[in-house]
Design brief:
By secondary structure, the chain is an alpha+beta fold. It has a domain of 74 residues. Helix content is 35%, strand content 35%. The radius of gyration is 45 Å and the shape is rod-shaped.
Length: 155
């Protein structure tokens, strides 16, 4: 009888201890309807490795656009004024007229320059030179000369 009480106690103890475990149900999963766009936005907002990749992509795009911009044409303008006065010596080619050699020159440059993918620089523009000195019988009038030039870039 005593063994029956003992085995009945064991069975009763096991049932009482397992009872709350058996009575517990699995928690109901929290469900929420989410669209694909919402899911993508949440992943982008919370996943740092994805954020790093997105930033690297944007950096690469900006570098590409900046490097393409090197081939855009540039407007180039220039002006130079020369005012010289010196004594004519016996070695000068202007020695036929004694006295002082005087010159007043104005040089104007304008054009578009661009870099081509081969490395050459192309310039399309005009140069205006107003050259005046006292060695000519009549002063030279301004000359307008169109220019188109190509030159390799210095290495």
């Amino acid at each position: 009888m005593w063994s029956r009480k003992l085995s009945l106690g064991w069975v009763l103890g096991i049932c009482l201890s397992l009872g709350p475990l058996a009575a517990q149900e699995e928690p109901a999963p929290i469900t929420r309807d989410m669209t694909l766009d919402e899911l993508i936005q949440r992943v982008l907002a919370r996943n740092e490795s994805v954020q790093v990749r997105v930033m690297e992509l944007e950096i690469s795009r900006r570098k590409y656009r900046a490097e393409r911009g090197i081939f855009e044409p540039e407007m180039v303008l220039g002006y130079e004024h020369q005012d010289n006065q010196r004594e004519i010596t016996s070695q000068d080619p202007f020695r036929l007229r004694p006295g002082t050699y005087e010159e007043r020159n104005n040089l104007y440059n304008a054009g578009l320059e661009t870099l081509v993918p081969t490395g050459a620089r192309v310039r399309l523009g005009y140069s205006l030179r107003d050259l005046r000195n006292n060695q000519h019988i009549s002063p030279m009038l301004a000359r307008l000369s169109p220019t188109v030039s190509m030159s390799p870039l210095p290495v």
